[in-house]
Design a protein that fits this description.
The chain is α+β, with helices and mostly antiparallel strands. The protein is built from 2 helices and 3 strands. The relative contact order is 0.34.
């Protein structure tokens, strides 16, 4: 299974990188943008019998290593692995 993990700061957690981008955008002509948050995407290929097993393993990976559960929220997107790739 091809898996994407989307990680972002939890609500109420300061996001200095997002704030810096939000302050810089008006200078580039984008005054209509607000609430900018910067996160990260992790892409994995997980060998698993089914999507539920892959999701369970990746959820455990997130809790143990990939995300900081105190300050970050994450979501897991499972995609079927295309055998031609």
């Amino acid at each position: 299974m091809r898996v994407r993990v989307l990680i972002r700061p939890k609500e109420g957690i300061l996001d200095p990188q997002g704030q810096a981008v939000e302050r810089a955008l008006p200078a580039l002509g984008y005054a209509n943008v607000s609430q900018v948050h910067i996160g990260k995407t992790i892409r994995l290929v997980v060998e698993a019998d089914d999507a539920a097993h892959a999701r369970s393993e990746v959820d455990e990976m997130c809790k143990r290593l990939l995300a900081n559960p105190v300050i970050e929220a994450y979501s897991i997107v499972i995609e079927a692995l295309d055998p031609s790739q």
